[in-house]
Amino acid sequence: MATTTLRFAGTVINTPDPDGLAAFYERLLDWPRLMDEQDWIALRHPDGGTAVAFQRDAAAVRPTWPAERGRQQMLLHLDFTTDDLDAAVQHAIDAGATLAATQTSETERVLLDPAGNPFCIIVTGA
Fold first, then answer.
1. Any idea which architecture 10-58 has in CATH?
2. How does DSSP assign 36-84, residue by residue?
3. pLDDT tens, position by position, 36-87
């Protein structure tokens, strides 16, 4: 039986505005565009690794955080780590994120990107 090796390439986020959402994550992460097409934009760390991409989907609906029965829920979220939670949260807000009204932990913050997708910033044990 032949075996196939899969390598994780990245995460794709559907959005009605791939350029706008990619621009937010460019500001947040300072990652350059790897691909830049009208309906598909991908960012990747300058040193390589996995990518995050944004695909045009006119039917994409803003998720609800926290989840509510009968409303669009998030299907996944991105996690980022930091040594300075307050500074990282402020950086995210300056880049265009909003702090979610509901928080679940003292060691992390839930924020929403401009399309309403939740993401977490988690303080490391440094």
1. 2-Layer Sandwich (3.30)
2. E-SSEEEEE-TT---EEEEEE-TT--PPBSS--TTS-B-S--EEEEES-
3. 999 999 999 999 999 999 999 999 999 999 999 999 988 889 999 999 999 9
